[in-house]
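User: Can you help me understand a structure? I only have the sequence.
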Amino acid sequence: MDAKAVAAEIVQSAKEAAKKMHITTMTVEVGQFATISVPDLAKEIALLLPFSSVDIEEKKARVKCGCGFEGAPEIQTSGAEGTPDFSCPKCKKKYPQVLEGDSVELKDIEVE
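Assistant: Let's start by predicting it. Here is the structure, written out as tokens:
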């Protein structure tokens, strides 16, 4: 993901929600499997909202496997282009379905 594009989308959503009020703080949730640099995202948001603070929280990944397992995946290493290399901890199948933890979301804003 391009940090600049994601930051612009998040800031636009926050500004629409704030309705012309000054955004003092925003909370952004970044999934464990989101393919974005958290420092780059924070920097881009700071450039777009220089007088606001940004809290970035990590959302742990949750997967579902054909063997019936649902929960935290087993992570071996980072794969190509920063994508995680993960598997089901129960049956060891590579890349079970990701249920949570692969997106970037605006969670909260504070305005004045």
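Now, to help you interpret it: The first strand starts at residue 23 and ends at 31. The two ends are 31 Å apart (CA to CA). Let me know which part you'd like to focus on.
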